[in-house]
UniProtKB/TrEMBL annotation:
This is CCD78 protein. The keyword Coiled coil applies. Residues 2-29, 141-168 form a coiled coil. The gene is Ccdc78_1. It comes from the Eukaryota. One of its GO terms (cellular component) is cytoplasm. Keywords: Coiled coil. It comes from Semnornis frantzii. Transmembrane segments: none annotated. InterPro entries: CCDC78.
Length: 232
């Protein structure tokens, strides 16, 4: 809805530009008509100058032609001015309505963002700040809207600072987790090293015991052999 209102605002601005262009075209048309009237007047005067001299009735007729011509021009300009003034009033009324609706939508949008933040949901995107959708045309900004604009700018700055603080806290928490994971990994490696070393030592001990038993048996055999031979 907010984007639709912005689109309507752009359409109204485009319509205003078209009306201004139409006004320029009509002004050129009226100038051409006025030039044609003057040419007709010059032709009329030339024809009067070339013709026979006439009485004051001709002067009265000439005055009537000129007055009629000027009245037509004034009436055309007046009608066009009334039409443009009516269009301008309608345009301003539409702009005021759209600005008011736009502000209500921004307020509702801001409340929705605050509700999302208050819910504590970190996975849901709150969307850009209200300042991103604010009207920037100074002709459409009232004193109230300007004050709201200033407050939105301050709010946007505070939100940026809050995000920076949250990023720092996340980094510290990640660092703490990494430190804890590092110590856990180190303890795990020490335990594995101790276990592996103990297994190796046990294997060597078993081998040494076996060799000792074999050596003792051989010593016993040698002693028995020596005693027998010495007895002989």
């Amino acid at each position: 809805v907010l984007l639709s209102c912005r689109s309507q605002l752009q359409e109204a601005e485009a319509e205003n530009s078209q009306l201004q262009l139409r006004l320029k075209e009509l002004s050129e048309d009226y100038r051409c008509r006025l030039a044609q009237y003057l040419r007709d007047l010059a032709a009329y005067m030339d024809s009067k100058a070339l013709g026979p001299i006439r009485g004051s009735a001709d002067g009265t007729a000439m005055k009537s032609i000129v007055d009629s011509m000027l009245q037509g021009i004034r009436a055309s300009y007046r009608a066009r001015e009334d039409q443009l003034a009516k269009a301008a009033r309608g345009y301003q009324k539409r702009m005021k309505t759209l600005v008011k609706k736009h502000e209500n939508l921004l307020i509702a949008y801001g409340l929705q963002r605050e509700q999302i933040r208050a819910s504590g949901s970190s996975t849901m995107d709150c969307g850009p700040a209200e300042l991103h959708f604010s009207i920037t045309d100074p002709e459409l900004l009232t004193n109230t809207v300007r004050e709201l604009q200033r407050l939105r700018e301050q709010k946007a700055k505070l939100e940026l600072q809050l995000q920076e603080v949250q990023q720092v806290l996340i980094c510290l928490s990640s660092l703490r987790l990494l430190t804890e994971k590092g110590w856990a990994e180190l303890r795990k490696q020490l335990q594995e090293f101790t276990h592996n070393t103990q297994e190796v030592l046990e294997q060597e001990r078993s081998q040494l015991l076996a060799r000792a038993l074999v050596a003792e048996e051989r010593v016993s055999e040698l002693q028995e052999y020596i005693e027998q031979h010495l007895a002989r």
